[in-house]
Amino acid sequence: MVYDTIVIGSGPGGYVAAIRCAQLGMKTAIIERYNTLGGTCLNVGCIPSKALLDSSEHYHNAEKNFTNHGIDLSGLKLNMPQMIARKNKVVADICKGVEFLMKKNKIDVHVGHGTLTSATTVEVVGEKTVSLEAKNIILATGSKPITPASFNYDKKRIITSTEALDIAKLPKRMSIIGAGVIGLELGSVFARLGTQVEVIEYAGSAIAGMDKDLGKELTRSLKKLGMKFHFNYMVKEVTATARKTKLVAEHKDSKEALVIDADYCLVAIGRRPYTDNLGLDKAGVKMDERGRIEVNEHLQTSVPNIYAIGDVVKGAMLAHKAEEEGVFVAETLAGQKPHIHYHLIPGVVYTWPEVAAVGLTEKEVQEAGTPYKVGKFPFRALGRAKASGDLEGMVKIIAHKETDEVLGVHMIGARCADIIAEAVTAMEYRASAEDIARMSHAHPTFTEAVKEAAMAATENRAIHM
Ligand code: FAD
Ligand code: NAI
Q1: Nearest-5° Cα angle at 330, 328 to 335
Q2: Angle between helices 46-60 and 80-104 (to 10 degrees)
Q3: pLDDT digit string (tens) for 223-248?
Q4: Residue 80 backbone phi and psi in degrees, to 5
Q5: Alpha-carbon span 85 to 204, nearest angstrom
Q6: Cβ-proximal residues to 390 (8 Å cutoff; 6+ apart), any chain
Q7: Counting atoms of ligand 2 from 1, which one is nearest the CA of 318?
Q8: At residue 465, does pLDDT exceed 90?
Q9: Which atom of ligand 2 is nearest to the CA of 233?
Q10: Can you give the pLDDT at residue 326?
Q11: 322 CB less than 6 Å from ligand 2?
Q12: How far does the centroid of ligand 1 lie from the alpha carbon of residue 271, in Å?
């Protein structure tokens, strides 16, 4: 049988592409080298990390914040094996959900490593070896953590996020290389539970790719949680014994050395596209200088019937970006003309307070020479924030100085991961700050900070400041 489409990789890019292809009437197969579907996101990424973030937040609140609400607890105890078991169950349930969706959409699942043998054939090496043929192929093979040789990644003491999600005995000390998304999310999990966490970061601030105000506020909050930061240090080497790790870093200007001993060292310095043994050369698929699969604006590779999506191509390494691209390619194959607004893909960091952003940062607007204005509103001035006790953070809206069009929205605070959807909707419809300022926002909610920031951006007329 010749499939209409074969998808290699079952992460949020691959499985969503397969479903959309099936919905559009294509006979579809998906190939996955692991026994569970869902890729990095479901198995060792978004879902397990958020499960542990939620559990650790409950623990932290019970330990530090309940008394203030008039709830006195005694005998509070951490049951880490149960926390991990719950996380595993959440993951297993969602992976089964994806399996169900494959069946429902009559998508053939082939378990094994897929290798292109030509532009239309894939060999799958699993329990058996099979050769599959298709008119079109979608590569959605995702990414793996970057682990330089000098960091001596051993999966036991020198670990990546994958192993960190399964630590069942709370470490006393953990060093983390990288104050990016993974370092701060997983650092928060362990710091909330009581681990002494030290973060070593090459850049001068945390989440350096986001608007500067967010990194500043988040660092302040995480320091209050007990996390320690060493900015402007480049980690040179990490070594481990059976129970300990030693990290050596160097200040980027003064060259001063920094040595940190810890029970675990978490390496969180980014991820690389994963194309090992994918047979790109056999099919004639080109890669770019950074090892990503090269694609054009239709996400088509150098071989016209082979497409690539998600972490393995350029752009943000985010699950929802991969999903959008999966739908995009399926619809393209069906002869439709889909579109993705890449600049409106939101970024979220699930720390507490949560951080979320969409559109241009203030620095990007400045660099582009665009005339702009800024409206800011702090959560502490909101009734809802006072009622819940979640006072940290703010919403910042950047709008064009003359047209008032919203160019970027950056926020840190309670529930920002969800609130950012309002900003995405507004920007998709090219709203002005005035448009947002005139929309009714339910009271009392955290979303009122968006309205107030929009009012601050238009003639500085925030009401509650
Ligand atoms: P992946 O999810 O990596 O899936 C690729 C799949 O392809 C894998 O299952 C792999 O086994 C399979 N595969 C690879 N090669 C082959 C082959 N040759 N044959 C067969 N199968 C193959 N993003 C967010 O948006 N929000 C978050 O909260 C978030 N949290 C994260 C937390 C952590 C700890 C990590 C590590 C990542 C997180 N991400 C998050 C990023 C997100 O997981 C990725 O952007 C997303 O999974 C990319 O999807 P993908 O489909 O491109 O690839
Ligand atoms: P990252 O790119 O977010 O951060 C890596 C950090 O490590 C950077 O700040 C960098 O300056 C620093 N660094 C690099 N080399 C260093 C060295 N030798 N010494 C000191 N610091 C060094 O990468 P991270 O956190 O590993 O995440 C990988 C990807 O996973 C991200 O691209 C992100 O998109 C995705 N992800 C998304 C999440 C979300 O959406 N909430 C959660 C977790 C991951």
Answers
A1: 95
A2: 150
A3: 999 999 999 999 999 999 999 999 99
A4: -65, -45
A5: 37
A6: 353, 379, 413, 414, 446
A7: 34
A8: no
A9: 20
A10: 98
A11: no
A12: 10
pLDDT tens, residue by residue, 163-216: 999 999 999 999 999 999 999 999 999 999 999 999 999 999 999 999 999 999
Atom of ligand 1 nearest to the CA of 326: 51
Q: How confident is the model at residue 460 (pLDDT cuts 50, 70, 90)?
A: confident
CB neighbour list of residue 383: distance below 8 Å, 6 or more residues apart: 443, 444
- For residue 175, the CA-to-ligand 2 centroid distance in Å is 15
Torsion of CA 365, 367, 368, 371, to 10 degrees: 50
Q: Is the CB–ligand 1 distance for residue 159 below 6 Å?
A: no
Q: Which listed ligand is nearest to 204 at the C-alpha?
A: 2
Cα(233) to centroid(ligand 2), Å: 15
Structure tokens at 207: 């989440």
Cβ atoms within 10 Å, residue 430: 10
Q: From the CA of 268, give the closest atom in ligand 2.
A: 26
Q: Does this model's pTM top 0.85?
A: yes
Q: Is the CB of 198 under 6 A from ligand 2?
A: no
Residue 283 CA to chain centroid, in angstroms?
31
CA nearest to 251, candidates 243, 262, 259: 259
Give the C-alpha separation, 183 to 203, whole Å. Answer: 13
Q: Is the pLDDT of residue 459 over 90?
A: no
* Nearest CA residue ID for atom 2, ligand 2: 270
Q: Which residues are catalytic?
A: 443
Q: Which domains does the chain have, with CATH numbers?
A: 2-143+272-342 (3.50.50.60), 149-269 (3.50.50.60), 353-457 (3.30.390.30)
Average pLDDT over residues 461-465: 89
**Atom 41 of ligand 1, nearest CA residue:** 318
State whether residue 223 is helix, strand or coil. helix
How close is the Cα of 302 to the center of ligand 2, in Å?
A: 29
> According to the model, what pLDDT value does residue 321 have?
98
Burial track 183-200 (b if 16+ CB lie within 10 A, e otherwise) = bbbbbbbbbbbbbbbbbb
Determine the Cα–Cα distance for residues 46 and 34; give it in Å rounded to an integer: 17
Greater confidence (10 vs 460) lies with 10
What angle, rounded to 10 degrees, do the helices at 12-23 and 319-333 form? 30
